[in-house]
Amino acid sequence: MTSTVEQTLTTIGPDDVEALARGAAVLGTGGGGDPYIGRLLATQALREHGPVPLVAPADLPDDATVMPVAMMGAPTVMVEKTPSTERIGAAVAALAEYLDVTPTHIACIEAGGVNSTFPLVAAAQLGLPVVDGDGMGRAFPELQMVLPTLAGIACSPMSIADEKGNVGVLTTVDNHAAEALARSLTITMGCAAIISNYVMTGAQARDALVPGTLGLCARIGHRLARVRAEHGDPVAAVAEELGGRVLHTGKVTDVSRRTVTGFARGTAIVSGPAGELTLEFQNEHLMAVCDGVVQVTTPDLIVVLDTDTGEPVTTEALRFGHRVTVLAAPTDERWHSPGGIALVGPRYFGYDTDPVRFDARESA
Questions:
Q1: What is the CATH number of the domain that holds 269?
Q2: In terms of residue numbers, what domain contains 338?
Q3: SS3 state of residue 354
Q4: Nearest C-alpha neighbor of 304 from the set 243, 235, 233, 217
Q5: Selection from 254, 263, 294, 233 nearest residue 139 by Cα
Q6: Which of 46, 66, 232, 283 has the smallest set of CB atoms within 10 Å of its CB?
Q7: Do 183 and 310 lie in a common domain?
Q8: Do residues 41 and 166 both lie within one domain?
């Protein structure tokens, strides 16, 4: 079926992908890879193999075998090195063969950019349904930074595949070790690889995933298109869908970006009537500071939108002169637990500040 804003998304076909990819780029908080590339690959796979069913986590059988699939690496690299669609399904197949299991469902490990659309490619190729949920409710840069880690689910065994046909399976002592070893392999593979990890039962997925994120992505994307067609305020529409608010509006006056150890790291300055807002990012936007005062930090969402169109702007697409609006929005409450802050709080990323939570009561 073809989705609309009013309908519940139960099947994903080629006509749904544009809206879903746009909404995923919003939740990706600047990371997760280029949504345009992800949209092209998913649309191609769905046209070739047919639509895929979308299953709510609550409807998963206890004994389901849920296998996430994602891209690992620097989003800046993928702009120049488009992944092979065959590698996406191959990563799942290699891990299933190693574990001697038959996958029943494909899942997203993060809601953002290509990593909300690559699972559609694998699902279409393998003839499997996709879970309407993800492991973060947003995007984060490292493998262990998922709610399944907080739920005690192991990242490995995990598979990793590159565009040349190299495929490997890692078994590691813990999820942090999986990140370190897979990151080294990803760098060797050209700073971009396809992975499958965090294999879960249906019961585990119901407990560990954020439900409804693909449906939310599609809803955001469809609403953006409708509001623009009606000459409304697209930024306000996104803020309402996220339960967020505007932090800052202005023009990008400086961007410093580099690819280091497989990450796109950098700083962007947005200058506007309210002063200068500095965005600190490592693949994703992690901290927003206005005139020296921290406004919001990870794990809450920091989203950059084109002021006129409401289109999400990824960290690799930020350019001097771009007129943008920065939103803040709340994340899944589990991220604000002590374990969640230890995994994804600002100090983990090297910023000398305690977490500053989104506050809807503050004025824009």
A1: 2.40.390.10
A2: 233-344
A3: coil
A4: 235
A5: 263
A6: 232
A7: no
A8: yes
Judged by phi (left if over 0) then psi (alpha if -120 to 50, else beta), residue 61 lies in beta
Instruction: Confirm whether 330 is domain-assigned.
Output: yes
Residue 338 domain-assigned (yes or no): yes
Residues 107, 175 share a domain: yes
Taking the C-alpha atoms of residue 140 and residue 27, their distance in angstroms, rounded to an integer, is 11
User: How many other CB atoms are there within 10 angstroms of residue 236's CB atom?
Assistant: 15
Nearest to 64 by CA among 104, 123, 106, 108: 104
Strands 284-290 and 293-297: antiparallel
Q: Let me know the angle formed at the C-alpha of 233 by 229 and 236, rounded to the nearest 5 degrees.
A: 130
251-272 pLDDT, tens digit each: 999 999 876 665 678 999 999 9
Query: Which pair of structure tokens corresponds to residue 15?
Result: 């006509």
The model carries a pTM of: 0.91
pLDDT tens sequence for the chain (364 residues): 333 334 578 999 999 999 999 999 999 999 877 778 889 999 999 999 999 999 999 999 999 999 999 989 866 566 566 666 778 889 999 999 999 999 999 999 998 878 999 999 999 999 999 999 999 999 998 999 999 999 999 999 999 999 889 999 999 999 999 999 999 999 899 888 999 999 999 999 999 999 999 999 999 999 999 999 999 999 999 999 999 999 999 999 999 987 666 567 899 999 999 999 999 998 899 999 998 999 999 999 999 999 999 999 988 889 999 999 999 999 999 999 999 999 999 999 999 999 999 986 654 4
Looking up tokens 């809601």, which residue turns up?
Answer: 111
Q: What is the C-alpha to C-alpha distance for residues 89 and 109, in angstroms, rounded to an integer?
A: 15
Distance CA 218, CA 132 (A): 11
Instruction: Report the phi/psi class of residue 243: left, alpha or beta, with left for phi > 0 and alpha for psi in -120 to 50.
Output: left
Is the domain of 83 the same as that of 162?
yes
* 40 and 180 share one domain: yes
Domain co-membership, 131 together with 169: yes
Helices (H), 28-117: 35-49, 75-78, 85-99
Cα angle for residues 207, 208, 212 (degrees, 5° grid)? 90
